[in-house]
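Suppose you are handed a protein chain with no further information: no name, no annotation, nothing but its sequence. What can you learn? This example shows the usual starting point.
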Amino acid sequence: LNESIKADHGFNIDSRAIRDLVEVMSSYDNNARRQYLQFITGSPRLPVGGFRGLNPPLTVVRKPHEAPLRPDDYLPSVMTCVNYLKLPEYSSREVMKKKLEIAIKEGVGSFHLS
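A reasonable first move is to predict its three-dimensional structure. Written in structure tokens, the prediction is:
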């Protein structure tokens, strides 16, 4: 999974947020994995080859925040057509997991420009 994520714009593959994301993704059961995939790619299934088969690759970037708000005040957002996840630099893995769950559930069937 680590090898199939492209970290960019504020993150690198060794960033705590990327490590936490991999842990969160690894903890999902089959149903949660389908929902997560639908959220980030627009499809509940991976192509042949799994995450490595995504074209373009899954890219995770740091979502900036504006004072007085903190990263924990934001939900992650995506650009599904390019498999692009904009992830705030959350204070903990638990916060990240909760925010991802909210975004996944609230984002089902909706389309927004960010």
